[in-house]
Structure formats: structure tokens, C-alpha cells
Amino acid sequence: MIDKKIEAGKRVAKELFPTEHSIDAAIVGAARFIIAAVEGRKDARLTQGEIHPALVAASESVSTLVQAMGAIASAHDEVVEIRDRHNLPTKGYGCEYSCMPSVAAQQRPDLSIVS
After folding, report:
1. Angle (deg, nearest 10), helices 2-44 and 48-85
2. CB 94 within 8 Å of CB 10
3. Is the pLDDT at 114 greater than 50, yes or no?
4. What does the CA dihedral 71, 80, 107, 115 come to, rounded to 10 degrees?
5. Measured between alpha carbons, how far is 102 from 80 in angstroms, rounded to an integer?
6. Quick one: which of 93, 100, 109 has its CA closest to 73?
7. Measured in whole angstroms, how far is the alpha carbon of residue 93 from the centre of its chain?
């Protein structure tokens, strides 16, 4: 049974890590777009007012992507907690870093003591 759990964990990790990388790449791309828009405005001799709506939209996209990053990080924390609850190995899933619960996850109160 443990082998099936480890294989399931590997399938989850196979999808999780590319998702994290995609969000990172999207944040970098949006930031580069903002830089290009500001520099392009100067080169094209446009007023700040002309480019402002595009910059507002782009900055909102960065904010949304950062929120997505936080959400997927929380999902990662939950998966790590499931792994630990089932006493599965901490390595072997392809995690690039030490896949331990984040500081935020560690600071959550254990609600089981409330019941």
C-alpha cells in the first residue's frame, strides 16, 4: 500500500512543480512587460496618460499572479502535511528544495485540540 501512496505522491509532484514554475514565469513575464511598456512609452514619445491604463492592468495581473503563487504554495504545504501524516519518505518526489511545511503552515494552530 505504501508503494501506491508513494507513486500517487510522485504523480501529484509531477503536476505541482511545473505549476509553480509556470506561475513564477508568468510573474517575470508580466514584470518584463511593464518595463517594456514604460521604456516603449519614452521611445515612442507617448504621454504617461496614454500608457497608464495598460500599466494599471499589468500591475493588477502581477498582483493576481502573486496571489496565485500564495495559493499554490498553500496547496504544496497541504500536500507535504498529507505526506507527513502518512509517514511517506520526504525525498524522491522531485522537489528542488527541502519540501518541509512553510513557516506559515507551521504557525497554524492545530485545530484538533479544539474539539
Report:
1. 170
2. yes
3. no
4. 100
5. 9
6. 100
7. 17
Residue type, 9: G
Please give the grid coordinates belonging to residue 56: 494599471
Lowest mean pLDDT among 23-27, 86-90, 93-97: 93-97
pLDDT-derived band at 111, boundaries 50, 70, 90: very low
Q: What is the model's pLDDT at position 93? A: 73
- Which letter, b or e, does each residue of 1-33 get, where b requires 16 or more Cβ atoms within 10 Å of its Cβ? eeeeeeeebeebbeebbeeeeebeebbeebeeb
Helices (H), the chain: 2-44, 48-85, 103-107
Q: How many Cβ atoms from other residues are within 10 Å of residue 99's Cβ?
A: 20
Q: Read off φ and ψ for residue 33, nearest 5 degrees.
A: -60, -45
Cell 504617461 belongs to which residue? 48
Q: Are 58 and 37 in contact (CB under 8 A)?
A: yes
Q: Which three cell numbers stand for residue 34?
A: 511593464
CA distance 94 to 10: 8
